[in-house]
Specification:
- The complex is a heterodimer of chains A (about 260) and B (about 240).
- Chain A contains eleven helices and no strands.
- Chain A is an all-alpha fold.
- The two termini of chain B are about 40 Å apart.
- The chains are: A mainly alpha (about 260), B mainly alpha (about 240).
- Chain A: This is Integral membrane protein.
- Chain A: Keywords: Membrane, Transmembrane, Transmembrane helix.
- Chain A: It comes from Arthrobacter crystallopoietes BAB-32.
């Protein structure tokens, strides 16, 4: 994206609050996950315990909002302008893919695209904001905001390598999918008692029938679905960035850095 | 009918969602769903709430039925058994309770969304001193979704006229590429232009700029919203500690 029209003051650093809040948000997400995994609740057949659902919902959402509060004010206007594009592409391309009966979600292409173009902070902000705004139409995505933030963050982290070697994109997406699956599984298990889709629910049911606990079944299902989905999303987003005309592509920080190195 | 301030509605919706998740009582979830439907009918959005809720919840309910009821190995009161399928009363009870809880969760937020004045929400976020970027991004997404959908339709029609598309995986992938590349390119080009316009106008300006519209809350709304959130948090703590069973 084009450079800001106003030059930044020399020697300015992000205020302490903007450095602490994302760390605090990440710590809240990590603490929520650790608490849910270490103190696994009783089995569903005996009735789910009531605290994990509220803890998973409140802990993950609070962590994601803290992360957003620290990151958002620091983003340059050029990046703020591109975040809505990523969020809208998630919705429009996700819906188009859904209509083609491809058995993948591909609703994070926009988040990955912003991460690959504008970096980790922009990717994480797009993930959280995407979940918050999409929840106005589909409230069930709200507790998954932390997982979406992680996808955007990881896309920005691997961006410089992926844009130099496109074949790395599915590998990076696969690994990001594993992380996202592990983070999102407690939400799916404890807030919704399974998954939000019928096909994925059938896979969870299969693992349950084999004697696994609910969290183990949902985690295994997520580890099957998410890496494949994110591998395709990363590959598509990387190819889209590389398919852009050089004039447009080099206006963004990560492709510019990839071209320079 | 006067609308609630967006933050009051959000506080009520969050409190109700937290309580229904923490309490996990089927009768409470059912009561919240019925209350949401009654409030929606009063605001003339009952039909939209039912349709949107059904679309959101149908796959979730099917998944819960498969996970908890259809292959239940532990329940003693078997209703149906054959092959791997083992439908029990206990499994159905668990799936029903979870389904009602998810239904109540979705209903409170959908009711908030359907009765929300989105422009008022963006204005209220700005007035509250939250980063102007947040309001801009929400406003931009709400405006861009229909515009981008329309652009995607136009591109798809133009590519169809050129003879793109057809059956088979290769043709589907080709038509997806022919849609996605111009859509992303045009969207990024627009974002570049918007970025220059925003910077030229000094975005994000300080809070001292002239406001053309203000969103005000009635006197009772702020204490009522805060009380609802505090009460919900207290209930969650008491339920978690096992003081209330």
């Amino acid at each position: 994206m084009s450079s800001p029209l106003v030059l930044p003051a020399a020697g300015t650093r992000a205020p302490l609050r903007s450095r602490l809040l994302p760390l605090l948000g990440a710590a809240v997400i990590a603490a929520t996950y650790t608490m849910l995994v270490l103190l696994q609740p009783t089995e569903a057949a005996a009735g789910l315990s009531n605290w994990p659902a509220a803890v998973a919902f409140a802990g993950y959402l609070a962590g994601a909002i803290l992360l957003l509060a620290g990151v958002l004010p620091q983003l340059p206007v050029s990046v703020v302008a591109v975040i809505p594009v990523g969020m809208v592409l998630n919705i429009v391309l996700g819906q188009f893919v859904g209509s083609t009966l491809v058995p993948l979600y591909l609703d994070s292409i926009g988040t990955v695209l912003v991460g690959l173009l504008a970096g980790r902070s922009a990717g994480a902000a797009t993930g959280v904001l995407g979940s918050l705004v999409w929840s106005l139409f589909n409230p069930t995505v709200l507790p998954f905001a932390a997982g979406a933030a992680v996808i955007g963050f990881l896309a920005g982290a691997v961006g410089p390598w992926v844009l130099r070697r496109a074949w790395l994109a599915p590998v990076a997406g696969f690994l990001a999918g594993v992380v996202a699956a592990v983070i999102s599984a407690p939400v799916a298990a404890f807030v919704y008692g399974g998954t939000s889709g019928a096909a994925t629910g059938a896979i969870v049911a299969m693992f349950r029938a084999m004697g696994d606990s609910l969290l183990a079944s949902v985690t295994k299902q997520a580890l099957i679905s998410d890496p494949a989905d994110k591998a395709v999303a990363f590959l598509v987003a990387a190819l889209l960035v590389l398919a852009l005309p050089r004039r447009v592509r080099l206006q963004f920080p990560l492709p510019r850095r990839a071209a320079r190195d | 009918m006067t609308r609630l301030h967006p933050f009051t509605g959000l506080a009520f919706a969050t409190s109700a969602a937290l309580v229904c998740l923490a309490a996990d009582r089927w009768w409470l979830s059912l009561a919240i769903i019925l209350a949401c439907l009654a409030l929606a009918a009063r605001r003339r959005v009952g039909g939209r709430l039912a349709v949107a809720g059904g679309a959101v919840l149908a796959p979730l309910w099917l998944s819960q039925l498969l996970v908890h009821a259809a292959f239940d190995r532990t329940g003693s009161q078997v209703l149906l058994a054959g092959g791997p399928v083992r439908l029990t009363v206990e499994g159905l009870t668990t799936a029903g309770g979870l389904g009602l809880r998810a239904g109540a969760f979705a209903a409170v937020f959908l009711l908030f969304s359907l009765t929300l004045d989105r422009h008022a929400l963006i204005r209220a976020l700005d007035q509250a001193g939250l980063p102007a970027q947040l309001g801009y991004i929400i406003a931009a997404v709400l405006a861009l979704v229909p515009a981008t959908m329309e652009r995607a339709r136009s591109i798809a029609q133009a590519q169809a006229v050129r003879g793109a598309g057809g059956r088979g995986l290769a043709n589907r992938l080709s038509s997806a590429r022919l849609l996605a590349v111009p859509l992303v390119l045009a969207s990024l080009q627009d974002a570049t232009e918007r970025s220059s316009a925003l910077q030229l106008r000094g975005f994000p300006a300080g809070r001292e700029r002239t406001q053309l519209r203000t969103v005000t809350a009635r006197r009772w709304e702020l204490p009522a919203g805060a009380a609802a959130l505090c009460l919900a948090a207290l209930l969650v703590v008491l339920l978690t500690l096992g003081v209330i069973r």
